Amino acid sequence: MKPFAHFNARSVKEAVGLLTEYKGKAKLNAGGTDLLGLLKNSILPDYPKAIINIKTITGLDYIKEDTTGLKIGALSKLADIARSPAVKGKYPLLSEAAHSVATPLIRNVATIGGNLVQDVRCWYYRYPHQIGGPVICRRKGGKTCNALAGDNRYHSIFGAAHGCVAVNPSDIGMALIALDASIKTSQRTIDAQGFFTAGATASTILDANELVTEIQIPQPPQGARQHYLKFTLREPVDFAIVSVASFITLKEGICADARIILGAVAPAPVRAGKAEEIIKGRPIDEASADEAAKSALRNAKPLSRNAYKVEIAKALVKRAILMEISCP
Amino acid sequence: MADSYRFIGKATPRKDAGDIVTGKSRFLNDIKLPGMLYGKVLRSPHPHAFIKKVDKRAALKLPGVKAILDWGDMPDWRGGTPRCTRALDRKVRFVGDAVALVAATSEEAANAALHLIEVEYELLPAVFAMEEALKPGAPQLYDEFPGNVVIPGVPFFGPKSLQEVVMGDVEKGFREADVITEGTFGYENIPNPLPPEPPGAIALWKEPNKLTLWISSQTPYLDQILLTHVMGKKVEVRTIGGPCGGSYGSKQMSWPLHCQAALLSRATGKPVKLAFGKEEHLAAFVLRPASRMQARVGMKRDGTVTAVSGAWLIDTGYYSMTTQAQVAVGCGEVQLAVRCPNWDLKTTIVCTNRNASGIVRGFGGQELKCSLIPLLSLAMEKAGLDPLEFFKKNFVKPGDGYFWRDGIWYTYRGVDYAESFDKGAKKFGWKEKWQGWLKPSAVDGAKRRGVGLGVHGNADIGEDASEAHVRLHPDGTAMLFSCLTEHGTGQTSNFIKMAAEVLGIAMERISLSPADSLVNPYEFGPVGSRGTYAIGSAVIAAAEDARRQLFELIAPKLGTAPENLETVDGIIYVKDNPGKKMPWKAMSIDRTITGYGRFEPDYTLTNCLMSFIEVEVDTETGKVTLLRIVNTTDVGQIIDPQGLEGQLNGCLGSAGIDTAIFEETILDRKSGQMLNANMIDYKWRTFAELPVIDNVILETPFPSHRFQAIGVGEVATAPGPSAVLMAVSNAVGVWLHDYPLTPDKILRALGKTGVVRKRGVR
Questions:
Q1: Mapping DSSP to helix (H, G, I), strand (E, B) and coil, where does residue B262 land?
Q2: Do A306 and B686 make contact, defined as CB atoms within 8 angstroms?
Q3: pTM
Q4: In this predicted model, what pLDDT tens digit does every residue of B323-366 receive, in sequence order?
Q5: Which stretches of A91-240 are assigned E, i.e. beta strand?
Q6: How do beta strands B305-315 and B290-299 pair?
């Protein structure tokens, strides 16, 4: 690692002040599970001049439930979220998504805020300096996206964002969209879907001096069924190759409402709106699930090496929907 | 027999166990010499280029930077087979090749200097696929290897060194066959064995020509010999090994790193530590060779193989350390697995612009079996043969012969492994699960189960020479002098166990000399599975020699002949009159007794392991799940039950079974960059998802040494990958042709995705 200035922020205001002062040349550090790897391998195009430790901000690691819903402080650890009785009770989708992240050691330090703003896992973007790197790809201001013409087995099947086909790796993000959550930052409150609008060099709409402070999830209606399915080569550790979050409300066996989100398939989480429309107002069965799954992937445009992800995504969407009838 | 032993076959604690779990073991990273500097390597971003200019000026100005060296500073030290490769060259041949070396007072300073070295390159076209490298006009990696074909043969194996399997008359063999099949299978995923401790060394150069190296290696004595030759016999090399955090063969490849550390020490006059990080370990160290075989097989309906004819193509990366040796051993091993009189199997080793293939557990044989067993399976399928019955009939039997690595014909004198295959099959339930070729053993919706088996055996259990000294002390203790480091198998404790059994003293009373090439006799090292038989024989012989000398000395004092004596716990007594006794101290307190033992190579015995595997394939997602493994073997006599169990359970790790499921090195075939040089993208099974493993171990006495035992550890990884390929092919009902069987390949084989990948393009 190279030298940098280090600050222990005591408040959100102080952290915002430092971010503003450093004009995009500072990085926030909460759990550090993403940032440290980026720094050690000198992956970022500009090495940060300052690291702002926000673990020193007190009172941002709460999980509070009331009659309107759930509020989670941005510094809450994934391990705490995964095992929280409140989360497990009415928001099992979030608990499952949190539990699916990485390993116990990482979940013990990684925060929910950090998970939402984590950088992409593209292996060209993350190519280490130690082995003749880094790679100046499109996302780092280069001319081309190396993955487009290279090995794109883990990349987008729904096109590029500003020429970059890296996917959003956040498990939590998709769960929050499915749960109709809002994300509160130091300057505004945004719905979860809107939060993940992929830009040229970032996966969220956060400004350079903005940080996530709270996650707000409305209480699910009666009859809501939630599932998180994550396809990986290995059970622990891995980032998703494809993941699906489903939030389906059944009334007397008929689908009254549905939110189906696909993850790791595009630069931002993908809401499968057409699939949702197909199952709404119908009983959940093999035929409707199959039709919805096909429709969710109808607009997929796989790259040279990742057509298989389309098949996996179809299988996962179908399974997520059918779980509504197999799991009471 | 086992019950008559005091230590052999019994569960005993490893000598190093306490130190490891309490953190007292001093691994390379724990050694800090006074004034020690830290070395780092600047690595090439280009797969093939000439270095035109290295500008060190800015980097040299950094505080703490003591030396920056480039190819111009490297003497004519060369390694590889043949010795054509330099540890720093004017030409770089893969992304990650060494360009410059830095020594500094801290790792941070050395790293900072790397960022300031300016290098000008003249780019050359690169080649990443074997068939491209073999084409006329392809970029040439070395002047010495025209057409990028590595010169065959291993000088160390002698003038007839095995390069191919050619014997009998294949045309006649094909005429006699009931079925003839042809195909191509490739094992080209170049996995990394990835021992937990990355490679490293500390070098201390003393002018004019003395070099001491503290190394992390499984073969400390061999490193000394190798480096002496690499350095043109002009340097007095001393190697000191310590606890080694795994090797799986790979750390025998450290000579470039040793040369680099030595050069930095020579330039600075200080000890220099050069240890690779995980990224370097993954992207700039050792991979398995890539291997592909196209062959035609002739077979009779009774499982008699009448002819094998084909071409085995091996990609060794940017140079060959020992690939010719791997080919030689592999060619010997196929004859152990298949009794066939007519062979025409030709081999070609090719250089390409990626990091080098090196020594990895399975040593050529695993690579070869991954293609050959599927090729044989095509014929078995056509002939309607159960692979279990096929290998029972075909695996080498007493009296059969084979050409071994030196090109000499040997006659096998070990046990028939058919019984162990049957025992393993019973434990696995093979007969119940086997439904025939390309048929699943069970179907549950989208999930289909399949079974497969693989087999591997290696006559390396008696390869190469070993020497040992055993020194007896008057206080009833002893010391074993053998140039050994513990690299995780527990064998150093087992050699002490063997000496303890011979000398009749507790293992705690025997210590092992430091693994210093200066004080120990010749030792090839615990490579392959040679530890138990080859090294064990030298240790046993040394202990027996010491014991004989002791008895000869004491016999007159007890008024009897040496052959009437026995010793237990440091007391020598007369066998038929145990009351007549003397302690070892009677040898005199100003005396020690040193026995010497030597093992001469013996290629007439082989080990064997068969692995049975059950998988579940999700036909909608293409995911392969490993459900169950049964390994079966016959070891003659168990030396150490837990150690053996650990070795066999190692079938998963060190680029073993999982190389058929998800483990692979992913090379960008345009840039030559290794894309998954990190522990997230390099798919390595974690302990959280281990399958059920059962090991069936027979103990039919072998005509080896005093304890009638042989080694088997190395081969544990080798039968698995082809067994997985067989199991998955059976589950999905169609032959899969290359590894690993990731979802993209499964879904394509099932016709669910239409994208066809060009061969050689990953």
A1: helix
A2: no
A3: 0.97
A4: 999 999 999 999 999 999 999 999 999 999 999 999 999 999 99
A5: 182-185, 189-191, 212-218, 224-231
A6: antiparallel
Bond before A134 cis per omega within 30 degrees: yes
Which among B686, B743, B748 has CB closest to A236? B686
pLDDT at position B717 is 97
Angle made by CA atoms B196, B202, B205, in degrees to the nearest 5: 160
Q: How far apart are CA A63 and CA B696, in angstroms?
A: 52
Rounded (5°) CA angle B168-B169-B171: 155
Backbone torsions φ then ψ of B631, nearest 5 degrees? -100, 140
- Chain mean position to CA B325: 12
Cβ separation B676–A124 shorter than 8 A: no
B95/A132 touch (CB, cutoff 8 Å), yes or no: yes
Coil, strand or helix: which one is B100? strand
Question: For A216-225, A318-327, B111-120, B303-312, which range has the lowest pLDDT when averaged over its residues?
Answer: A318-327
Nearest to B430 by CA among B410, B455, B406: B455
B747: closest CA among A294, A166, A310?
Answer: A310
Determine which of A127, A137, A144, A241 to mutate to test the interface with B (most B C-beta atoms within 10 Å). Answer: A127
Question: So what's the ipTM on this one?
Answer: 0.96
Q: Which helix (DSSP H) or strand (DSSP E) does residue A293 occupy?
A: helix A286-296
Integer Cα distance of A300 and A302 in angstroms: 6
pLDDT (average), residues B291-314: 98
Distance CA B354, CA B754 (A): 29
- Vertex B192: Cα angle to B188 and B722 (nearest 5): 45
Nearest partner of B274 among B197, B199, B356, B195, judged by Cα: B199
Is a pLDDT exceeding 60 seen at residue B695?
yes
Residue-averaged pLDDT of chain B: 96
Q: Which residue's structure tokens are 């290279």?
A: A150
* Structure tokens given for B429: 């339930």
For residue A131, give the nearest of B96, B620, B683 by CB distance.
Answer: B96
What amino acid occupies position B89? D
Mean pLDDT of the region B161-188? 98
List alpha helices for B103-230, DSSP H: 107-116, 130-133, 170-176, 220-230
pLDDT, tens digit (0-9, with 9 covering 90-100), for A11-65: 999 999 999 999 999 999 999 999 998 998 888 888 899 999 999 999 999 999 9
**Minimum Cα–Cα distance from A150: chain B residue:** B668
Asked whether the beta carbons of B704 and B637 are under 8 A apart, the reply is no
Residue A103 with chain B: CB contacts under 8 Å: 686
Taking any CB pair shorter than 8 Å as contact, residues of chain A touching chain B are 1-2, 41-42, 103, 121, 123-124, 126-133, 135, 146, 149-151, 153, 231, 233-239, 241, 302, 304-308, 310-312, 314-316
In this predicted model, what pLDDT tens digit does every residue of A310-327 receive, in sequence order? Answer: 999 999 999 999 997 765
Shortest Cα–Cα distance, A300 to chain B (Å): 13
Phi-psi region of B248 (alpha: psi -120 to 50; beta: other; left: phi over 0): left
Quote the percentage of chain A above a pLDDT of 90. 91
Segment B544-560 mean pLDDT? 98
pLDDT tens, B731-758?
Answer: 999 999 999 999 999 999 999 997 544 4
- Does the pLDDT of residue B1 top 70, yes or no? no
C-alpha distances in Å from residue A328, one per residue of A225, A253, B314: 9, 11, 55
The three-state (H, E, C) secondary structure of B400-416, written as one string: CEEECCCCCEEECCCCC
